[in-house]
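User: quick one
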Amino acid sequence: MNTAKQNPSLIRIRDLSRRYQMGDTTIEALRSVDLDIFPNEYVAIMGPSGSGKTTLMNMIGCLDSPSGGSYALNGTETAGMSDTQLARIRNREIGFVFQTFNLLARATALHNVELPLIYTGLKRTERLARAEKALQQVGLTERAYHKPGEMSGGQRQRVAVARALVTEPSILLADEPTGNLDSKTGHEIMALFDQLHAAGQTIILVTHEADIAEHAQRQIHLLDGQIAIDTGKSNLSREAVQ
Amino acid sequence: MLGWEMIIVALQSIRANFFRAVLTMLGIIIGVAAVIAMVALGTGAQRAVNEQLENLGGNILSVRSGSHLFRGVEKGDIKLNLDDAAAIERDVEAATAVVPETSGQIPIKMGNKNRTVTVVGTTPNYDSVQKYELMYGRMFTRAENQAKERVAVIGGDLPGSLETAPEMIIGQDLLIKGTSFKIIGIFEPKGTIGFGNRDEYVWVPLNTAQARLTGNKDLNSIGVQISPDVPMDIAIIDVERVMRREHQIIPGGKNDFTLSDSKQFLSMQQEAAEIFSYLLAGIAGISLIVGGIGIMNIMLVTVTERTREIGIRKALGATRTNILLQFLIEAMALCLVGGAIGIALGASAAMLMASLAGWSTPLSVSAILLAFGFSAGVGLIFGLLPARKAAGLDPIEALRYE
Ligand SMILES: Nc1ncnc2c1ncn2[C@@H]1O[C@H](COP(=O)(O)OP(=O)(O)OP(=O)(O)O)[C@@H](O)[C@H]1O
Ligand SMILES: [Mg+2]
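Assistant: Done. Structure below.
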């Protein structure tokens, strides 16, 4: 208990469920999930398609709200939060790389990366400086003024990564960040993630590829909305026992 | 998000769908143009009427022979004469001055220029009662009237129409119906009042006119200046009483003269302008409402089209308020751009009308502010529903929207 206080979980999920009502049938995308993630952890979530990986990421990213159970971020329960508080968390605490990129089609790469900073309330010059730096981090400086439609899938992926990093979030959530990349650029992105992690970044990523998951210290396998394997679990329970 | 960012986003999205935006704005454009034209017309007409009222001077009641409609056509038309004028001056207490007039369309000639103009024979108090100012020279005198002198005062526009300069014309000879008159004065032009341009009239002493031009003792009209302390309708009754007595009309018999208030036609003019203003106000109101509904419709379409964008913005930290404001500002930007076009259009229409009617350009800052206020208001009211719809979208559902 003492250790838990000194090193409280960044993410604390208890008995979390998410149900979708589709007509008469209820789809249980997540069932009774218990999960603690600590600062500076590097977690890979794996599992077959439809097992609830994206749903779990949306929960952690405060984009979706649970049907049951609780989710505390940084020790604060999210259930009672107002829309504005949740928006603030999405803006400041979370960097989200979506499975489907979700870039603004009409905006340039630079503007896409700048977008979250607009809601942070930064001045334009500061925003542009930071957006350029983030694009540089993912090696896309020369594509700053291209629109998503003028870029390859891998380049779009990297714009999405740059946008997630630009706010310097406490948690980086990446839903298959290498899914659209060839192995070379994939490894470049993973090298960047490793570097960020070494600098103290908390990272949660979803992947199908075992060698990508190897980069993380902890692997969680989802099956039918439940956690089947959690390689960090033993570690966690050991801490909890102490 | 800063307001400035939202304005830029709004303008970009208008530019992205420019043709659609212009079509959407059409209602607002017409509505605002109507507002501008309405206000301009209203103030312009009012100003013109006020100017004319000032020029008309005090309250003048005009007694004319016969009935207005059949003047000169009815047989045995009873004419007015100087006895009537004297009786009114003597017996109508409210009458502060009486100006008898005889007039006709008469050919005049100066040098080799021929014109046919209205020549008025009247008394020397004409200019002070009818509020004419002299530009050059002087008015004729009582002595000149009594002596039937051949002198004339001309309207301010006549020198121009005779192609000479006003200052050159004093002392020159003017042939009226073949008789030579000496020009002794020119009135300042007054502008058109009612029907006919009085600034091209020629005035001569009444006695001279009766002796030399008309050859009879008849008068066309008697102008009666009414004391400002006496209401016009009461004065009219008094003048009518005296005239009926003079013309020995039996009780119940019809008047053989007509009475008219010089301000009557002005109020008619004012009424016409007012009716036109109401019409424009109606057009403005309906267009603004229809335009507003058009804005609402297009904004609903925009919100649906941009569901994904809204989802992305929300996922990246936009609050409900951010999204609400973004779409409200976009609706208002549509309306304000439409409003600006409408103002330009309405202003041109107003200036055209003003120049046709001979008014000064009546565009006011307050009318433009009013129009901008209207368009912003329409944007606000009709933009609210779509903006609320956008703000209320669930981020996940918005992101999944195809
Ligand atoms: N909005 C929704 N409405 C209904 N069912 C949904 C919705 N979102 C997800 N689901 C269902 O929840 C389950 C989990 O979906 P999720 O997107 O989390 O899967 P995933 O693990 O990310 O799969 P993939 O690897 O293919 O991305 C699926 O069965 C899916 O059909
Ligand atoms: Mg998924």
